[in-house]
Amino acid sequence: MFAHALNAYLQVQVPGVAERRITDIFKPMGTPGYAEREAALFTIGVTAVIFVVVAGLIVYTVWRFRRRPSDDSAQEPPQVYGSNQIEAAWTIIPILIVFVLIGVSARVIAGVENASPPPKALKVRLIGHQWWWEVQYPDYGIVTANEIHVPATPDGQRATYLELTSVDVIHSFWIPELAGKTDLIPNRVNYAWIDPRVPGVYVGNCAEYCGTQHAQMLLRVIADTPENFKTWTEQQQRPAENDPQVSDARNVFGSLACVNCHDIRGTPSVGKFGPDLTHLMSRRTLAAGVLVNDTKNLRAWVDDPQKAKPGCLMPSMKLNDQQLEQVVSYLQSLK
Amino acid sequence: MASIDYPLEHPKAEALTPEFSFSESLYKWVATVDHKRLGLMYVVSALVFLVIAGIMASVIRMQLAFPLNHVVGPDTFNRLFTMHGTTMVFLVGMPMVAGFSVYLIPLMIGTRDMAFPRLNAFGFWIFLLGGCLLYFSYIGGGGLSGDGSAPDVGWFAYAPLTEKAFSRGAATDYWALGVLLSGVGSIVTALNVIATTFCMRCPGMTLSRMPMFVWVMLIDAWLVLVALPPLSAAQIMLELDRHLGANFFDTQAGGSAVLWQHLFWIFGHPEVYILIFPAFAILSEVIPVFSRKPLFGRPAMVGAVTAIGFISLGVWAHHMFAIGMTSWSNTFFAASSMLVGVPTGIKIFNWTATMYGGKLRMQTPLLFCIAFLLQFLVAGLTGIMLAVAPFDWQLHDSYFVVAHFHFTLVGGLVFGLFAGMYYWFPKVSGKMLDEKLGKWHFWLFCIGFNMTFLTLHFAGFLGMPRRIYTYYPGRGWDAINLIASLGVIPQAAGILCFVWNIIRSSLRGIPAGDDPWDAWTLEWATTSPPPEYNFEKLPVVRSSRPLWDLKHPQDPDWKYE
Ligand SMILES: [Cu+2]
Ligand SMILES: [Cu+2]
Predict the structure, then answer these.
(1) Which residue has the higher pLDDT, B121 or A20?
(2) pLDDT digits 0-9 by tens, A86-103
(3) Residue B160, preceding bond cis, omega within 30 degrees?
(4) pLDDT of the residue at A9
(5) What's the CA dihedral at A17, A18, A19, A22 to 10 degrees?
(6) Residue B397: which of A80, A106, A207 has the nearest Cβ?
(7) CB-based burial label for B443 (10 Å; 0-12, 13-18, 19+)
(8) Which segments in chain A show pLDDT lower than 50?
(9) Interface list for B 220-259 with A (CB within 8 A)
(10) Given A187, A203, A237, which residue is the final one in a domain?
């Protein structure tokens, strides 16, 4: 319903830069966000008019009827008790305004919530964990974390439909430029959809308080061109890189407790408690968007995750320097 | 026709009061069942908690002043906002409701005490016990495992974060039990208020002649009685979950996280009206007296509070627009939430109309009322924005919501309470508060408040979620947060002026006399402070402004009502 209007609106928007970090809800890049903006602007318009009228009346009254030093203080002003006509007027007019707003809300609610997926829609399952996001693509057999790759869809035909749930407490999915919030609730599956019109990286935070590191639970939606998205899926579907140059390092990794918590497909490391590391190096960030994924940060993270993200559920593994070196070089081979 | 049954002049009450030693007077306070002493103790303990929670808020704002700031760590921060919110709602707002009610209602309806004086004392002490229990968590919250301290689950304590698996130690238990106990206090006080207003009104005071303050607090008491038990029940269920293996909210064992939200907000939304009603009640007394006109549209005002009371019981799920309800449910709750704006608007219009054509005495109590009107207008309109469910999908749990409810609870309730304190302090203490300090208090607090909370609306527009202990630079939030944090300084300075004003004026303020504001309700017909028995002879009234009738025998109200 809002797709056409959005197309017209996007004509005059600057296309997305590499990473859009100012997440302004009034600059949407997808249909749900755009529909919500329409409702928002209309509401703001109506309430602004009400504000100007009523605040103006209050200020005028105070100014006009303030007691001046010249006033005869013994003289009381005329005692007015009320007026039924006036009461009726300021009851009925607000009711009419409210009905208009209800109509607008109902229309947008239905437009966003009851939209049915187009045939080419992509399906993604997003699972909340205490302080990171698991991302599954059931149709592709891909599992990754904290960064959702989706195709950008200039015409909105390749929207992404998300199934949302959680393994522990409540989290909330919110990418301000693409769509408002939908909660990830344990024991329950919720749905949301996004259709980024322009390639780019869209940032969002977990929006429901979920414990110690709620603040550092960022989520990125990376909207690729269709070609890049295809390359990405093909690369993600492969099992882990088996680089002979790091076979020693791989053995060190395999001997550590890392394997109990992390899955690296095609290796004996099959833990499910932490993020899947099979293609770790294909991610831009570490630990739910807290660190840029480079050598220095990766080493610092493996050395002591509690420094970058105090309270997070990966313990400090107390590796010695040599182990640390080898584990990091192995992780860096996971292209 | 009018017979004056109660004199405006009294013999000096001091002459009758003997001197007490310290331990005697301490005993008198602890063992008292006098509604005035209890009311005062409620308000003073609420003020103490207000200062504590205000200091917590200042630390929160210090931490958020700059991106990646290091004043406190995540765990401390999470405890701070949990304790700040819980304290402000349950240990500041609720005792203020109770304190103003039990102090003023018997005086205003011309009687000697509450219907159940002992229950009144029980209500106060159980509330204080609940508050102390909550704060004891800083010491005892570690439980046997030593894991944890004060609660860190947020003031609405969403399941399953509160379950044993995610909240070890005893902190959450202190939260649940402390709030449960203080809730018992609120419930018994509500019962007491209802019984008092129904049974104890002085001769001639029909319901339609009851002061507006009493009307609003009566409806408030009903709302407490209906809304609080679901919360108490939910807290008991939570304790059953945590200690006796029930699985109401334990999602790991098949419980429901959404059930907690329903139970909490069935209480939680009416609660915001429970908290704002005292401000409505105070404005309805202060504005007429300082405008020198009767309240415009009294019947409409009573109708409006009653309507708000009823509608507010059917809007709770507007706190849950993001949990994935059907489009029909979302539409229903959007509609009911917007409807609540209609009676609220009626109240604002009527207060303004009361001032219209009056002679406004621009003294501190009225200044706070005027700021209330403008700020509460903003709060109401941002409330409409939040009620538009699609807009709420963006705004929910963002700093916009934080700004919105601080506009209702600080810009509304706290400003209203200040108006009330400046208005009734002379009655309670017999001394006037200093006008000059009062004006300083008003302007500093008003400017600081708007610096902090007007700006925070925009952080929400830029995608800043609430309850984050830190944030990264470059997201457009830095300047907003810095201004918001700087706003703490004038607010704190304003509060200092207020505290200093109270101390100084109680010691050597100008004597107030019985009726310093030339007011119209019965509390001004007795001495300041009122004697233990309130009235030597119970008054008889013939209109809603008995003292007006007395002062204007040629033109009494009862001719028109
Ligand atoms: Cu979170
Ligand atoms: Cu609400």
Answers:
(1) B121
(2) 999 999 999 999 999 999
(3) yes
(4) 60
(5) -10
(6) A207
(7) middle
(8) 12-17
(9) 251-252, 254-258
(10) A237
> Does residue B171 surpass a pLDDT of 50?
yes
Q: Which domain does A318 fall in, by range?
A: 244-332
Q: How far apart are CA A303 and CA A316, in angstroms?
A: 7
Q: A207 and A262, same structural domain? A: no
Residue A288 C-beta-side C-alpha neighbours within 13 Å: 26
Q: Which two tokens stand for residue A85?
A: 């006509």
The reply to whether A62 and A122 lie within a common domain is yes
Which residue, A198, A178, A285, is CA-closest to A17?
A198
Q: Residues A216, A255: one domain?
A: no
* Residue percentage of chain B with pLDDT more than 90: 89
Mutate which of A68, A98, A171 to test chain B, going by most B C-beta atoms within 10 A?
A: A98
Residues contacting B422, CB < 8 A, separation 6+: B363, B364, B365, B368, B433, B438
Query: Which residue in B75, B297, B390 is closest to A105 by CB distance?
Result: B390
What per-residue confidence (pLDDT) applies to B21? 82
Give the confidence band of B5 by pLDDT, cuts at 50, 70, 90: very low
Task: Specify the 3-state DSSP secondary structure of B139.
Answer: helix
Interface test mutation site (partner B, options A1, A17, A100, A102, max chain B beta carbons within 10 A): A102
Give the number of the ligand closest to the Cα of residue B409: 2
Domain end (from A237, A252, A274): A237
Would you say domain B39-551 falls under CATH 3.40.1580.10? no
Token pair listed for B175: 């939260």
Q: Total domain count for chain A? A: 2
Q: With an 8 Å Cβ cutoff, is A49 touching chain B?
A: no
Ligand 1 ion: residues within 5 Å (CB)? A 171, 206, 210, 214, 217
Give the separation between CA A246 and CA A325, rounded to whole angstroms.
11
Could you state, in order of their start, the residue ranges of all structural domains in chain B? Answer: 39-551
B25 falls in which pLDDT band (50, 70, 90)? confident
Using CB atoms within 10 Å of the CB of residue B506, give its burial: 0 to 12 exposed, 13 to 18 middle, 19+ buried: middle
**Residue B191 binned pLDDT confidence (cut-offs 50, 70, 90):** very high
Q: A218-224 and A200-205 as β-strands: parallel, antiparallel, unpaired?
A: antiparallel
Read off the tokens for B465. Answer: 């979620």
- B328-385 pLDDT, tens digit per residue, is 999 999 999 999 999 999 999 999 999 999 999 999 999 999 999 999 999 999 999 9
Q: How many CB atoms lie within 10 A of CB A93?
A: 13
ipTM value: 0.93
B84 CA distance to ligand 1 middle (Å): 19
Q: Indicate if A86 and A164 belong to the same structural domain.
A: yes
One domain, residues A202 and A268: no
Q: Is A172 on the interface with B (CB under 8 A)?
A: yes
**Contact at CB, A180 and B258, closer than 8 angstroms:** no
In 3D, which of A40, A38, A46, A29 has the Cα closest to residue A1?
A38
Closest-CA distance, A2 to chain B, in angstroms, reads: 13
Residues A256 and A328 in one domain: yes
Task: Determine what percent of chain A is predicted with pLDDT higher than 70.
Answer: 93
Q: How remote is the CA of residue B340 from the centroid of ligand 2, in Å?
A: 10
- Residues of A (110-169) whose Cβ lies below 8 Å from B: 110, 112-114, 130, 164, 168-169
- A263, A171: one domain: no
pLDDT of residue B16: 52
Q: Are A227 and A260 members of one domain?
A: no
Residue B165, class by beta-carbon neighbours within 10 Å (0-12 exposed, 13-18 middle, 19+ buried)?
Answer: middle
User: Which ligand ends up closest to the CA of B404?
Assistant: 2
CA–CA separation, B151 vs B169, rounded Å? 9
B162 to chain A, minimum CA–CA distance in Å? 9
* CATH number for the domain harbouring residue A283: 2.60.40.420
